[in-house]
Amino acid sequence: MTGTFLLEQALNGLQYGLMLFLLAAGLTIVFGVMDMINLAHGSLYMAGAFLAAWLAPLLGSFWLALGGAVVLTAAGAMVLERTLLRSLYRRDHLSQVLATFALILILNDAVRMVFGNDRPLSAPAGLDGPVALPFGLHYPAWRLVIIGVGLALAAALYVLVQKTRVGAWVRAGASDRDMSTAMGVNVPSLFTAVFGLGAALCAVAGALLAPLLAVQVGMGENILIPAFVVVVIGGIGSIRGALVGALLVGVVDTLGRTLLQQVLREGLPPQWASAAGPALASVAVYVLMAAVLVWRPQGLLPVRGR
Amino acid sequence: MNHLRARAFLLPLAAAACLAAATLAHAADRVKVGFVSTLSGPSSALGVDIRDGFMLAVRLNGGKLGGLPAEVLITDDQFNPDVGRQAFERYVKRDKVDVMTGVVFSNIMLAALPEAVDNNVVYISPNAAPSSIAGKDCNPMFFAASWPNDAYHEAAGAFATQRGLKNAYLIAPNYQAGKDSLAGFKRTFKGQVVGETYTKLGQLDYAAELAEIRAAKPQTLYIFLPGGMGINFIKQFIGSGLSKDTMLLLPGFSADQDVISAVGPAMAGLFNTAHWSPDLDNPANRKFVAEFQKAYNRLPTLYASQGYDTALLIDAAVRDAKGKVEDRQAFRNALRAAKFESVRGPFKFNKNQYPIQNYYVRSIGNDGKGGLVNKSFNEPILRDHGDAYVQQCQMK
Q1: What is the pLDDT of residues B287-346, one digit of tens each?
Q2: Which of A226, B57, B105, B232 is paired with B27 by a 20 to 30 Å CA distance?
Q3: Closest chain B CA to residue A19
Q4: Which of the given ranges, A169-183, A209-223, B372-386, has the highest pLDDT on average?
Q5: Residues 6+ apart with CB under 8 A from B320
Q6: Which domains does chain B carry?
Q7: How far is B205 from chain A (nearest CA, A)?
């Protein structure tokens, strides 16, 4: 095991973690501020990817397509919030889960009808190959772009939530919704804006990951469970918690998939290692979640005032 | 007077004619096919292609199979073994179908299969052909019109050996089919296996595995990652720059027309192994590829060819059994003889009712119209190839 291998895995963990953060950030604010479980969060990620893949050949530029996808996904999500989700806030969590699960099925079929089962989207020319990094490592350029965009958005979100008035409303809403309403926060508009912001982050993640993964109907379902794990680890409603949780999950998942198998191969007969390694690797993230919950049932960085 | 007598004669005659027609309508004057496949959800592309291929053959045949009008009942199994099993039960017991077919995935097929074969209804698999039913659990009512699960991997191993590749790194998801497929590759590969990684089923991001492969520096990388897993892996493999040192070798379904359209131009030059290719030069295939493009405005995949062949096989068996589909033994004997022009070229059934056929190496190249398409090497890599399990099958 060499230094370049560890560096590559550290970058991989960072990249995966930052993408999870973009998904979990929206999820955790919606959960924290509106007390709403939105299973269809992954569908917004899918919508962002499909819209980017649809716009890219029309506009002739990946970055314009990314911008267009973000605007369209956020607008669509805000319409959805005004027309449908709004009526779910006062319902119990079970109704929300059922309604948003139905929404997943509807959106999957709607996307299939409009765009088809899958759609190709390539990274911009020049960014689709590897680049040479120090220590002789060749690393996919696109993953570096994702890391850069992810870090920039995490910083922007921090400024928005910690330093602006809107951010103060969001934090107040996450801490105590009734009190913030009483203090004069325009809750309906805030909810719509928060939902749109969450959708915009999903669309960025969907469009950025599309050249690496595939733009396919149903792509949102796979990413939803890790995103919820991040929310639970970080503390519901907490953006900082989502960032820490996402990076932890990213690193544990990446290292679990390789180091765990290698370590087991050293100490166990090969047939045992190849049976136990992958099984343990798939549960590693959930073991992490269980350990965090035993230690801090509220999550690592819970919002204050709960 | 004469007129009246004539009518008196005519009446019973007419009645008899009517009765005869009525009884004929209930006898085997049509073939009923139950078709259950995954037609919705993220995994539906394969089932849709099988259905489109199957229905194309029926349509080109004037809506008939073996000279009898064909009635094809189609149901979506929703990628759910329970739904699939219930659909089989309904078609077999209530609709009294003559033959069942259609299922894409082995887990659904294995759950539903007993509903057909235990009730004396033949099942012809247009795709899933697990090694268990090839071996000790072989069943007289089960026919595989596709390829045994291991075959593509055996062909890939044989190709790597033929190319003189010294070592290989293998990746598959951590489940039975994944382990079986890598075993198939190792059966025919003479070089050294330097690494074997099993991943989570349904995994999307392979960055960690690619880092391991980069560290291992293998000459060949062989993957068994069906569906979206393969698409994601290939994209990330190409983006990582590993293709300069390592040759990526694929099973045919991971380099099929749908994968090429999802991954894009970066797939040019990759090798893969399959029992069929759109450019195989035989009259049946030329007709199939042209008609499929005309009907659906896209190039056919392996799965479409398998659906088409399944319909041709039923057509030939109904014809050879002289339309007596309800005589199961006669129908089965006609199926075993398999006298049809397969789009894959030479085809016959083994003792276990799995195919004996040729396997080809395909390489992805330019179609001359700005698109990419599979082109096969003319010489098969495996000729008249059966499977490794037939000896365990006790069927006569």
Answers
A1: 999 999 999 999 999 999 999 999 999 999 999 999 999 899 999 999 999 999 999 999
A2: B57
A3: B205
A4: B372-386
A5: B66, B334, B337, B339
A6: 31-147+279-353 (3.40.50.2300), 150-274 (3.40.50.2300)
A7: 7
